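Run log, item B.
One chain of 349 residues. Sequence copied directly from the ordering sheet:
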Amino acid sequence: MIQRFMTPFLNWWVGQLTGLIPARLLDAYVEAGDAAILEIAGDGFVLDIRRAVVLERAGEGPVSVLAQTLSSVVDPPQMRLLRVAGSQALRKTLILPLAARHDLKNVLSFEMDRETPFEQAEVYWSHSVVSHDSAKGKLEVELVVLPRRAAEAMAETARAAGFDPAALEIADRSGGTSLLWLGGQSQIRLPRLRPKSIRSKRLMIAVYALAAAVLLAPFLVQEVHFLLAGRTIAALESKARTASALQQAANRRTAAVEFMGRKSGANGSALKILLAATRALPDDTYLTGLSIHEGQVTMAGSSELAANLIKSLAKSPAFRDPVFEAAVVENSSTNLEDFTISTKLADGS
């Protein structure tokens, strides 16, 4: 009876402990353990099996025979990785304050859209500490980023053949690898206990007592620390998001002021050009966009009769050679015609 209930409990407990192990230790565990490693390039694939740190080729060929190759592998490892060429990932070295090491993952998530062309939701990413300088208070971190769309496309191809990868394995320049988890670290499968491997009730009770005494108390304390830290981080994240929104709004206002005051050749500032356009266009016309680049002005907006706008702008002393950039489209919600017109400044500069 005890044996029947204890084995599922201990396997569940091991699974819970997985989520508390530091990510770097879990990566090291996976990199050293048995795994099936699949690489897909175009319409072909290569499948390797790693057992006891020895890598052996299990099969290769067109993707159409991948499912057949997988079914022929005897006792395949539970851990499955999808190998991605290092050239497909973006690697960037960041220099951060040393204090950032206490909450490095959250710090990097806030920096993602500033330091890369992507937002956090658009990528799978990982990081590693390269070095730290206590004297200068600096931390050197390498950020590894892979666009989520490309990764999911490869993962879906693998899943269609029955290969469900837990993580992406990306080679680095030093010969090592970085792991980017597709479904979180909970997909890691640590060795499981089986009833047949425990031969006596006394041993089961001893294992239970050891698990409770050695593991339960320390991790309960750690859970309390995590709870308090989580509340602190949540409060800081809220303040950081508010500060970021204020900064973006200030940047937009600054950019608008700079644009309106920027000189555009002999015609003067953007404000002066906007005034000339307002005077030239009829009262039933509304501008929604205005851009100026190297003496070329592009206007977008709506009008009751957009066809007359070319003639109106041609009469203005500020503009010359006005043309429609795109076809005029009737807007059913406003009963106006949407237009985009390109024209040159009269001085040609």
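Observations after the first pass:
- The longest helix spans residues 201-261.
- The chain is about 40% helix and 30% strand.
Flagged for discussion on Thursday.
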